[in-house]
């Protein structure tokens, strides 16, 4: 664990792509392949992750409108035993050579998705709007239609006529063959001459492979040279296709909101395989309230927990389990409820050293009950997995020292202090000073929730503190 963190710590949050794909909200049929309409997809999610990896939640199979099969994210158990996801994010991970694809959703208002490709995020805004139509909708993510051009492959070049008068190192520019293929011309260098001394070419090397709009055919003749040679021609063979937008990429789509993800549509020739989770990556399990659940997110990948995971280098394998109004002893199903404790233990099953992060909460009913609830939860997690690392953070907003002290007392009462740590955001320095945070970081008319910039700031501060605690405990 310690070596994994030290090796990845500098990753930080995802950078913005210099040339992101365009995202377009379409209709009830795919624009990539018109054979797919009303929820039909080429690749649908399945529990075996055969075509794509579904991550960030626990999933169960469901049948949606029109007898379409998909997965529903459901990992948070309520007091009655029912399962839901609230607004917590889930992720779709694929590797593909396709330049554009359609994401299919059963649409619902308040939903969104972010696209991250090869370790960079397309944009930090919600690219498209969802309606409350309850209809199937296709959203096209595109790097542009692919155009194929042809470039000379690195092989022994067959000469049709050797020419005369060439010098070693001469550069020779060629036409587009007998079919006059347009484009950037191929340039060859004279690499060897005949021993006869008359400038006859024996070997050529590629100086510029050219870039022809279609495949040259027949004989390619010299159109210019840097020397005095004349008469050389070569065979128009062994060109490789070069693609303008089709290339191998790793895609991660982060979704939030009530819309149901149905799957992906690509062209038939596209290759799609699942992007697996790094088996060496520790699992980061984050528990929180409405702030962690994504209240006032500007974009789907803007969750507080997502930013923390990225900054720690643990973005490969994390889950956010946050419900508004809950806390250690508060809400319909507080964190200390047996159903929630069972959730937390289940999240860490099969992990050698899962990392638990409890963020906040503001939602407390009793200081004494809060203090008592914490060791109840953490001791149960340690009983199930003695190697589990558990870290708590204090109330994010409010500036309450008494609440901060009550939470700290609970963490101090945890039995195994080697695997438990507490981080205060109130003492000795208030991360969000109540004298200023209402104006600087929270959403207007709601002093209980930071906006996107406030969540980003908190994640940056918290991640550094969490990192130090993790390295200390993982090394024990």
Based on the model shown, name its key terms:
Jelly Rolls; hydrolase activity, acting on ester bonds; 3 domains; six-stranded antiparallel beta sheet; SGNH_hydro_sf; SGNH/GDSL hydrolase family protein; alpha+beta; 476 residues
Would you give an account of this structure?
The protein has 476 residues and is an alpha+beta fold. The protein folds into 3 domains: 15-144 and 246-275, Sandwich (Jelly Rolls), CATH 2.60.120; 148-243, no CATH class; 277-476, SGNH hydrolase (Rossmann fold, 3-Layer(aba) Sandwich), CATH 3.40.50.1110. The chain has helices at residues 2-8, 290-293, 304-312, 338-347, 367-384, 401-412, 437-440, 452-474, and strands at residues 15-16, 22-25, 53-55, 59-64, 68-73, 76-77, 83-84, 90-96, 100-106, 112-117, 120-121, 136-142, 148-152, 159-161, 171-174, 183-184, 187-193, 201-208, 211-212, 219-225, 233-235, 239-243, 249-256, 260-265, 272-274, 284-288, 318-322, 355-359, 389-393, 420-423. Strands 1, 3, 8, 10, 11, 23 and 25 form a 7-stranded mixed sheet that branches. Strands 14-21-20-15-17-18 form a 6-stranded antiparallel sheet, with no helix packed on it. A 5-stranded parallel sheet has the order 27-26-28-29-30, with helices on both faces.
């Amino acid at each position: 664990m310690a070596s994994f963190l030290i090796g990845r710590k500098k990753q930080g949050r995802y950078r913005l792509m210099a040339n992101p794909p365009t995202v377009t909200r379409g209709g009830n049929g795919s624009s990539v392949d018109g054979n797919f309409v009303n929820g039909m997809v080429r690749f649908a999610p399945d529990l075996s992750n055969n075509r794509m990896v579904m991550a960030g939640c626990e999933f169960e199979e469901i049948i949606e409108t029109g007898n379409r099969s998909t997965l529903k994210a459901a990992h948070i158990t309520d007091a009655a035993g029912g399962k839901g996801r609230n607004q917590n994010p889930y992720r779709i991970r694929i590797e593909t050579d396709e330049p554009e694809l359609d994401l299919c959703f059963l649409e619902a208002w308040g939903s969104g998705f972010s696209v991250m490709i090869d370790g960079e995020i397309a944009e930090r805004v919600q690219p498209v709007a969802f309606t409350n139509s309850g209809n199937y909708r296709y959203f096209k993510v595109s790097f542009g239609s692919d155009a194929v051009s042809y470039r000379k492959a690195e092989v022994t070049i067959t000469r049709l006529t050797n020419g005369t008068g060439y010098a070693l190192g001469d550069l020779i520019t060629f036409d587009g063959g007998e079919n006059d293929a347009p484009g950037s011309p191929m340039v060859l260098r004279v690499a060897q001459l005949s021993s006869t001394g008359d400038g006859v070419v024996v070997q050529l090397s590629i100086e510029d492979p050219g870039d022809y709009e279609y495949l040259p055919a027949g004989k390619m003749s010299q159109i210019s040279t840097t020397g005095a040679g004349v008469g050389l021609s070569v065979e128009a063979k062994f060109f490789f296709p070069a693609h303008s937008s089709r290339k191998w990429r790793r895609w991660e789509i982060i979704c939030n909101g009530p819309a149901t993800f149905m799957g992906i549509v690509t062209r038939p020739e596209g290759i799609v395989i699942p992007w697996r989770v790094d088996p060496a990556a520790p699992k980061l399990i984050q528990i929180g309230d409405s702030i962690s659940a994504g209240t006032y997110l500007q974009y789907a990948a803007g969750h507080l927990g997502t930013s923390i995971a990225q900054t720690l280098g643990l973005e490969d394998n994390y889950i956010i389990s946050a419900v508004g109004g809950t806390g250690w002893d508060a809400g319909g199903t507080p964190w200390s409820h047996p159903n929630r404790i069972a959730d937390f233990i289940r999240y860490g099953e099969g992990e050698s050293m899962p990392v638990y992060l409890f963020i906040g909460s503001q939602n407390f009913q009793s200081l004494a009950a809060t203090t008592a609830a914490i060791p109840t939860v953490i001791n149960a997690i340690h009983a199930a997995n003695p190697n589990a690392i558990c870290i708590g953070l204090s109330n994010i907003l409010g500036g309450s020292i008494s609440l901060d002290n009550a939470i700290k007392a609970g963490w101090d009462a945890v039995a195994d202090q080697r695997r438990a740590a507490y981080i205060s955001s109130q003492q000795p320095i208030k991360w969000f000073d109540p004298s200023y945070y209402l104006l600087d970081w929270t959403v207007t008319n709601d002093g209980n929730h930071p906006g996107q910039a406030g969540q980003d700031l908190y994640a940056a501060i918290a991640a550094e503190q969490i990192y130090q605690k993790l390295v200390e405990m993982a090394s024990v």
